[in-house]
Amino acid sequence: MYIVPSSTAYNVSRKLASIFSCNVSGVVRKRFPDNEMYLKIIDDVKGEDVLLVGNTRGDQDIIEYLLLLDAIKEEEPKSITAVVPFFGYARQHMRYNNGEPVSSKVFTQAINQYADRIITVELHDEQTLNYSKVPFIDIKIINPIYKYFMDKNIDFVISPDDGGYERVKLMGSKLGIPAYYIDKKRIDSTTVKMTLPEEDYKDKNILILDDIISTGGTIIKAAGMLKDKGARNIYACAIHGVFANNSNEKIERYVNELTVTDTIETKYSNITISGEIAESLKDKISI
Ligand code: R5P
């Protein structure tokens, strides 16, 4: 078995290799004189189970991922598992307006041309799973987050919107604490009204848990409201730390601690998802 890392997922690749006791293949990355991407897999993956680990977040990342899939397939491996810790473009999982593409379908179907299965983590919307003809597994990350926060004396866990309520309910029941969500209503295209549930937040340690932090607007608003109510410590946690426009710098001013998983590798990635990915693969590949 081999792991081929895209440049977006070296750490998760190494961690998976250590769990499976297998090699991480070398990859040569260069640019042609016209700046097109050149890639070459160094190890011989013929007849092997291969995991290609990488994200489809930025446009370059998608090109790299698809080229690596083709490079692997050309070597005639035994199987290809597409491990995509952060499945980018997943927010456009349906047509909102005429003339738009269904982006998550495009990338799912492209990966389908090569892979025997796809594994991802906390997809934005499970509709995307239906676009795949090969098995497509969406892993939920609860235990590693629970383990990280279990000793931090959290009093409440709160989701910044009702969409994340199931996640915080699960976390709350593991931590043995109440779980709430903030009522979020869109007033117009630029205004969102957020209302905290009636609770006593004074001097409480509160965990805000979300699936993704992008511009940071949601987390900052939630943290600001909790601070105004007298919360003592605010821990912000998300599965995917996109941190668009360096929003992490602003978020840090509002929270006591910012933590994300390593689906996207950042300096806040204190929680790894590699154990959960390995677990989901146990009975699917020969180790
Ligand atoms: C919303 O549906 C999501 O759960 C996140 O709350 C949202 O995408 C976060 O985005 P931002 O960081 O840009 O506010």
From TrEMBL:
Residues covered by the Ribose-phosphate pyrophosphokinase N-terminal domain: 3-112
Family from the record: Belongs to the ribose-phosphate pyrophosphokinase family.
Stored Pfam families: Pribosyltran (PF00156), Pribosyltran_N (PF13793)
InterPro entries hit by this protein: Pribosyltran_N, PRTase-like, PRTase_dom, Rib-P_diPkinase
Highest taxon, organism lineage: Archaea
Gene Ontology terms describing biological process: 5-phosphoribose 1-diphosphate biosynthetic process; purine nucleotide biosynthetic process
Record SUPFAM superfamilies: PRTase-like
The organism of origin for this protein: Ferroplasma acidiphilum
Residues of the Phosphoribosyltransferase domain: 140-250
Keyword presence, Aminoacyl-tRNA synthetase: no
One GO MF term: kinase activity
EC numbers on record: 2.7.6.1
Record's keyword terms, sorted: ATP-binding, Cytoplasm, Kinase, Metal-binding, Nucleotide biosynthesis, Nucleotide-binding, Transferase
NCBIfam families for the chain: PRK00934.1 (NF002095), ribP_PPkin (TIGR01251)
Descriptive protein name: ribose-phosphate diphosphokinase
Reactions listed under catalytic activity: D-ribose 5-phosphate + ATP = 5-phospho-alpha-D-ribose 1-diphosphate + AMP + H(+)
GO cellular component: cytoplasm; ribose phosphate diphosphokinase complex
